[in-house]
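Reopening this one. Same input as before:
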Amino acid sequence: MPWPKVKTILKKSLSASVYSLWVDPIQGVQVADDLLELICPDQFFASWVAQHYLPLIQESLALCGHGGITARCALRPGNGLATAAIGNVTTEQLRLPCVPEQQRSTIRTLHPRYTFDEFMVGDSNALAHSACNALASGDTSLGRCLYIDAGTGLGKSHLTHAVAHHVATNTPSLRLHYLTAQQLTSEMVRAIKGNSMEQFKAKFHKHCDMLLIEDVQALSGRVKTQSELADAFDILMESGKSIVLTGGMAPRDIPNIDEGIRSRFSSGLVTSINSPDLHTRVIIIKRKAQNKGVVLSDELIIYLAESIRGDVRQLESAVIGLKAKSCLLKTLPDLAMAKEVVRNLIGHQVELSAESVRDFVARQFKVAVNDLRSKSRKKSITFPRQVAMYLARKHTGQALGDIGGAFNRDHSTVVHSVRVITEAVTRNGSIRGQLEHLSDKLKKELQ
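Same output, byte for byte:
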């Protein structure tokens, strides 16, 4: 049987994470003298292996003296299942006989690298990672409902994809529905127009074991969707099901949602993902460079980690930019190349902090910085102070406590100010225009 020998070769040539994720779960079965079938857990897994690792597996067969054997990916055979050819993968849509076809899980297209193994854990995201991992594994010791609050590019989608990957691989019979709040609203509108609300309700009430919904702040002002989600939430919780929600802000800060749905969002564990610290950014850059096949010196890694803060996607963009430039110039990445990539990515490097935002707002409203730091509750002072805190929260990666410190306040005051301005922007077009103007001007002056 050649498969154990092939696995030994692959274990030496691949990284430990890649081997454990894409090779170890495969079961090799020699179905003929010249054919080795690689039995994969699911269709996505089989397609990915066929596209990225099958040539390497074929080379490994030759190295261990079995060059005449052809390897192909396949799925375990099912009863009465439709088959379709995709490349050199024998694909079969798996379904348990006891699960009706209309009850299959619905999962959005998943990013192949958004797995738990690829998620870099640090102080800023450890609790969110632990809670997602627990729920995906069936551990409900932290509760059955999880709400993750995070800004753009900090990893909330990575974690929800990781949950879906884990469930699809390890408990495929679990009926998981994964969609965004906007998709939920669109699906409900189609059901109303098509007079199929009963099927819509049944999907989430009766045929769902785990519900993942992203960007729930998009439910703001959508009264009917909020009502339907509240009903589904209650039924799933009473039935012992699991729910994972993500949003760009905490439940208490989402404007124009019913207090009942706000209370449900907050009924389980609510945790935030903050901007990664320097140590975590270093780890992220090293992993991204490894995945992209880029060799970066420690000096370059530290430079990128110190220069790019907040959005993790920007770190990946920097690594991709360095790879592209080094390939074009046919030379290893150096500091000059890194500086050019960073400059193109984030512009001139001016430290954007709560203090710089505070001073900017003070100039725009023609008030003294000391007044913004004072205990004054005059409207001419409180409004600029709240605007400054809102902009600092939006444009910097600093923690709430650090932002509050710039105004001689604690984090709860920052939370209150962000909520007040968010609601004002939603209600008042004049204030919304003023905030957009200030944001644009802030970027030009300080970035």
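So the earlier flakiness isn't reproducible anymore. For the record, The chain has 20 helices and ten strands.
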